[in-house]
């Protein structure tokens, strides 16, 4: 027994002695004789006991102290409302929902202030709307796609500042980006700024014309070679077709053999060179060929 003030008072059916519900339940569970602590009458469980309501009311009016008093809670309480008070006490220590074990426990009454300044609280980046913890926000700006950066062609003269995430799109239209000449396929290896492309084309028009002529001559030769190849293949096809027609006359049709479950050349044959006659070998073993 705890010998403390009663908590949830119940009364035994035998001697009507009052006990804490928890204390009496522990006594019975640990006792081998299963008897009442006072009169030793048989008592198997607390199910036969009844609450002592008048006694409980007196207990509820006793003064009580909040367990969070060392942290600053000075509320005047009674035992009857102590449990409800614990649920709403502002001086209980709670964990930070953002930092968890990385943050120290804080008083519930100070939690809102702590949460606003917690370095582990996710905050949206104002430039790209990404959710970043407060302690990583400065580091994030080093790679944030919304931060404006200079054009890669700054040294060439471009003074544009564009968001990091749109640099590639800007380079595709930047007048200072060096790009290949539109006659690159014809052989021009020059790379000029996009804004000066028209000037380059006019300046080297004669050279571009010569390159185009050379490419056309090369293509005409390739076309001629391809035409000759086609003619040769057509001739070979004609020869093969004629040979196939001659072989078709000599080879008898295929017949299906149930014994081998596949088409066979039946009957097999050979040509006698001396007489030029075709002799057939019958596959039927019961008859002569």
Automatic annotation (TrEMBL):
It is found in: Cytoplasm. GO terms for cellular component: cytoplasm. Residues 114-164 form the TRAF-type domain. One of its GO terms (molecular function) is zinc ion binding. Its main location: cytoplasm. Residues 209-236 form a coiled coil. Residues 1-40 form the RING-type domain. InterPro entries: Znf_RING, Znf_RING/FYVE/PHD, Znf_TRAF. It comes from the Eukaryota. Keywords: Coiled coil, Cytoplasm, Metal-binding, Repeat, Zinc, Zinc-finger. A zinc finger (TRAF-type) spans 114-164. Probable adapter protein and signal transducer that links members of the tumor necrosis factor receptor family to different signaling pathways by association with the receptor cytoplasmic domain and kinases. PANTHER family: TNF RECEPTOR ASSOCIATED FACTOR (PTHR10131), TNF RECEPTOR-ASSOCIATED FACTOR 4 (PTHR10131:SF94). This is RING-type domain-containing protein. It comes from Arcella intermedia. The lineage of its organism: Eukaryota, Amoebozoa, Tubulinea, Elardia, Arcellinida.
